[in-house]
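Appendix B. Worked example

We walk through a single record from start to finish. Start with the input: the chain for Phosphotransferase, Lentibacillus salinarum, length 271.
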Amino acid sequence: MNWFQQAVGKEWNITPAGGLTGDAYIAEKNGQRLFLKRNSSPFLAVLSAEGIVPKLVFTKRMENGDVVTAQEWLEGRELKAAEMQHHRVADLLRKIHDSSELLHMLMRLGKKPVTPDDRFEAATDQLRADGLIREHQEVQEALKYLQRLLPVTRGRPQVVCHCDLNHNNIILTTKGQLYLIDWDNAMIADPAMDFGFILKWYVPEADWDEWLDHYGITNDQQLFERMYWYLIMDALQYIIWHQQRHDTEKVQSRLADLRNLNDYVGHAILR
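Next comes the structure step. The output line below is what the pipeline stores for this chain.
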């Protein structure tokens, strides 16, 4: 924490902001507050300029090589799950996906588009190495569906995707501003990865066409297939993540999600 104190000055009171890494703090002085974080991505600057995250106040490189960023602290709350259906969320997501500035910055930082073929091959290798293909029929079935749907995922638009659109990562301020935080998992990929997650987990299926229309696209069978390809892939990668951490309970929970996705794809898409 000494580095944070040095970054803002001794007159600021600094307290932990919580979180898993311990790299985030709140600095307060005379009623003013800043959100401090260590070694945030340089991507934060363009996100701030685009109005997608709270305003970046300063960036300082410390003597040990760490970089401390300070953002404006805004009063507000996390979005509720039911509020993810709102058209403002669709507007925010479209703004991100349409931004050439975000795309160019992420590419300058060394990010390259992640193709579905690469993801499929990498996931298959890891699932095999971890023994998950051998142990779980639902994993075998999921890989079969991914292979069958793989052709429809090729040659699609490549945009900046947030890849973690949990409602807890969207902040609504007391002034009515909407911000999307926690960009650690961002990648260049098919936008169906993002809006498919929102539709599946937050929007009633009867409202999907209206939500997508507001986002700016029309639903069709191929879009549907791409969405479910990414939903199954995400479920498999969560299973890998929990398996490697020996969290058996979470693995079983994710396997249950995967069974539900498999059942839907088998009956509604590949019937």
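Two observations about the output. The domain at 2-73 is CATH 3.30.200.20 (Phosphorylase Kinase; domain 1). The chain has two domains: 2-73, 81-269.
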